[in-house]
């Protein structure tokens, strides 16, 4: 395919609808002047996402053929470009959506969809989607649309990719800095698609209300501004163009949508074909809330890797020093049992057919691979993800090539797991830096990731600073769901840290927004049914 020039526009919006429209049109013109054929604008371009009540949101929202949408349509026709815009939109039946519209080069609306997962106060004045968004087949490629909070969890982007989208268009209204560093690029890498993401800048709340809301959130007022860093991400997770943290910008890149049709990893695994939808039924089940007891506040853990002798020595040393869970990249289980003698520690190690859990008494469980990926393509597969109740909380083991599947970690969260042990070997750069960090973030899971000695490993712990509208204990850095990372560089045989099993029980990122139970469970058929 001939390269397609795409643009992500970042701008500031206020409560002045006409001024917001003027900003949108001006920056659309700027993007078109640079040759953009596809232009993506941020979320809630028509008005700040702040209303007195549901009635006011409905009254201010756009309507078919109104001045706001008509002006966007006229610009699409004038420039012969596709334009994706997100607004609050009023429906005749009284609903108000956080709605994506796609205008084609004639100015016609060729697709629309509402936001499926709402964030915080959006639940007070908007209605969630009742159906999935379309896949838009265009001369520029197959396009899918989503918005902000839908990209903080995996299901919406995954569903679009499974239904054939090559380019995902994300409109954001976010002050979280971990959008740009984690949630945006991981959706490209884990699905091997392009992502074009446009975020806001400037205050996301009325200036007169900022002090009060800042105090309620426990977040300094200066952080309640759009985080910018709009970006265009390639299917391998590489950010090919990025906007500034502050200030208006038109972020431009030339992309080849056909690159998103290649779903093979270097080992030949097709990352979508290797999925096992028959295992994922719990993702489509009605939320039931967490039922298991809260885990321990603190759990000392360690990662160990190296030669066979070194692994045994370091495992014994870590257990004697107080580590209660030790994750080993690969080792002889019998040797690890001996190394744990006289301690209360548990260990997990990767094996040729999955991974095992053991303590000083012997092997306690064996998790077979869940997916026919990598080395497990021709081997025996598990029929379920096992969980183990230990003195400090609930453990799951997701090992080897299973670690690239977001569905596996979602199943762990739905089983009320607190800690996941992940001995693995990375075949692509994104798998640890984006993939496993996101698995911890989007599911509220502590993850101990142990790779071979020649690769980096990491311990990913949950922070107590997570739920907005509660007192923030440490200095606010803009990160909300990103885990606390203890990096273990390649060549370092041992790494240790403490994780927080108890924090896995708190999945409430903001008022009325639960990362796990807030998944769009009614609309995940693409994940749970085999795609033709």
UniProtKB/TrEMBL annotation:
Gene Ontology MF, one: hydrolase activity
UniProt cross-references to InterPro entries, sorted A to Z: C-N_Hydrolase, C-N_Hydrolase_sf
Domain CN hydrolase: 4-257
Keyword set includes Protein biosynthesis: no
Statement: the UniProt record of this protein carries the keyword Transferase: no
Keywords: Hydrolase
CDD domains, A to Z: nitrilase (cd07197)
SUPFAM superfamilies in the cross-refs: Carbon-nitrogen hydrolase
Family recorded in the similarity comment: Belongs to the carbon-nitrogen hydrolase superfamily. NIT1/NIT2 family.
PANTHER family (alphabetical): DEAMINATED GLUTATHIONE AMIDASE, NITRILASE-RELATED
Name of the featured protein: Putative amidohydrolase
Native species: Allocatelliglobosispora scoriae
Source taxonomy: Bacteria, Bacillati, Actinomycetota, Actinomycetes, Micromonosporales
